[in-house]
Amino acid sequence: MSIKHAIVHQLISNTAVTLNLREEELMSGEQLTELMNHTKSAFYNRSSKQYGQFAEEAGHFKALTQQWQAGGIGFTSLTTQLMKQLQLEIEEQKLETEGHWFFALETLESGDNFWFFHLKHKDGMMLTHDMNLSDARLIDFAKLGFGGYVDLTAMKNNEQKYLTVSFGFGDRVLQSALLNFVNFVDTINTAEDTDRFLEIVKAYSEALPQDKGSNYRKKAIEFCTEQDKLGETVVAEEMATVLKDEVGTEGPETLVTFMETREPEAKREFIPNRASLKKFQRYTGKTKEVSISFSNEILGRNVNFDPASETLTISNLPANLLKQLKSVVGDGD
């Protein structure tokens, strides 16, 4: 069992603030494992994660976590004191919120992670044991709130990135209070890292024979996208090896040696940014009257752009669009 400790508490803030604290940890079992898996899956599927660490100045979240790691307090005491600190943040900014907070320590081969999630609910219906209908309150994993984790091993080793957070559905007004609560400082710009790496991939693919170059770029974006889905980093050497086998690029210069020559300061390992990946997959734009989206692979083939006149020429139109256009022209005649 990878979950060593787990507990939930409840915080409700509307006309008054109510804090309901659980005194004992949750029992291990299938339901706890399922809760952990659902929350982690929802978290990993988000595109808006932020990566960093605790602020240099001492904060309650950082201080309590370190005290817990040193054996000064237990897990239940840690989470109880964290909830009291969150209550103060919510009261101070006069914010409204409700739901349960789930805390868990997960031990893996790669290290220990301290997870925290704001669980929100939705109304449902259930059949009781005597087969009567009854109202029910269900955890709404599709609208998981603010959450994240502390990589305790990385924190102990004083690494630059050990705290990952992400906001959920309806968290906009709570953002300031929640970031204060966890003492978060952003140390990594994933969009900047991804943009720079993909520009290097683009330059490298343009140096390859045309048929292999376009395929290489496509496969590179697919590789990065798959790593993002898995919640993993992109490692340039690993990607270069995989794509050499898939695309069949030959020659003395690999992507890695190309990077060393052209962009020696660029990161060889980075966290992919989903929004940046989409920019390199498709060109999109819209006004009130027009919406256009097409794969970057067909630019220069089925879609041609004239920068002088700022016009697009599109050939090989979709069959359903052609049918609509011909119908309109036919009606006009």
From TrEMBL:
InterPro entries: Nucleoid_associated_NdpA. GO terms for molecular function: double-stranded DNA binding; single-stranded RNA binding. Keywords: Cytoplasm. Transmembrane segments: none annotated. GO terms for cellular component: bacterial nucleoid. The keyword Nucleus does not apply. It comes from the Bacteria. The keyword Lipid biosynthesis does not apply. It is found in: Cytoplasm, Nucleoid. Its main location: cytoplasm. Belongs to the YejK family. This is Nucleoid-associated protein. It comes from Reinekea marinisedimentorum.
